[in-house]
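Reopening this one. Same input as before:
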Amino acid sequence: MRPIRPLFAARRARSARGRTAPVAAAVALGAALALTATACGPGDDNADAKASASASAGSDTLKIPDDLKQRLKDHGIDLDKWKNGEWKNWSKDKWLREAQDFVNPIIDGLWDAGRMRDADKNPGGQVDDNDLSGDQGVTDPEPKPVPAAAVQPSYHQNAPYAGKLVFDTPEGQAQCSATVVTDPAHPGKSNLVWTAGHCVHAGKNGGWYRNIAFVPSYNDAGKSADQLQNATREELAPYGVWWGDWAQTSDQWIEQGGPTGGAGASYDFAVLHVKPEKGATTKSLEEIAGAALPVNFNAPAVPKISQLTAKGYPAAPPFDGQKLFQCADKPGRLSLSDTDPTMYRIGCTMTGGSSGGGWIGQGSDGKPALVSNTSIGPVTSGWLAGPRLGKEAKAVYDSVSQKFAK
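Same output, byte for byte:
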């Protein structure tokens, strides 16, 4: 069985804690056209969304500014060759690793229905539950498994902030889950997406993944895998495909993260700024999706939280990555080392592919807010753990927001 979380196996960290610099800025050289957000009424969301979906399938030519072309060349990347398949070269000298090296030029139409549907790989290895035997710090008893419950379609109506993240790895196309979050610089018009760090960067022995795109309300009608065999792109992505043109994760993840173990898991979060594959829509992701969650960076201590709800698109058996599921449970504490922050842990049977999905709790105003994201879990698929979002996470979030504040 595949692990329930694509990257870190739940194991005691065996390396020293990374430096505490809170922000790993990632320079994204996106090829998307500029997106200008405009106000809209509640009645015209669907019309604009369908226009966006139609535009995604069109043949408009994207124009890349000369300075972006030059920066791609500085990385040894010929854009034409990259779009024609050079991105599949994962040799060490081609796999960009450093925070400032992130590049994600749009390849028009790359994420067709087949690639989105079959993006079920999980970038990581298996985990033995016994690896938790050396934990230090505060760890509560392992929670009882909570069966994952299917979210009722339409997802656009019942969980409009949720979606699937698709991307390419050296092993093939992969998927995670992600959440539309609010942007302080653009109230009501956010283009920010929250996910796990391991869904965008491979950690200490790898680099940035490629062709990263967010699909809000993926498979909105909740069709089965059999029903989707001949599905159109618009059926799977009715609200468009949104490419990451800027990504940031923590320094700790880049320096310590990996396919197994626990190092970096407490800092396993990332924020993306996205743009539509085609520039036909003048609306933001938040307006098209229909909602965005605020992020709570000061959630109360675990004993004071009555319930957290994790949402995601699990892809490892017995799931297939096509439908949205959720688990609700009272969280406990999981400590992977005595030097890193304690993580949240809930009972949940979701598997790989649910990584990066938002954990929803109560914000300071009593309304729903994102409190964490799925990061790690055991091979046995009985629980999930996610980082407690503090100053490091807020610094990453604020940095992305401020970058696009103008």
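So the earlier flakiness isn't reproducible anymore. For the record, The first helix runs from residue 45 to 56.
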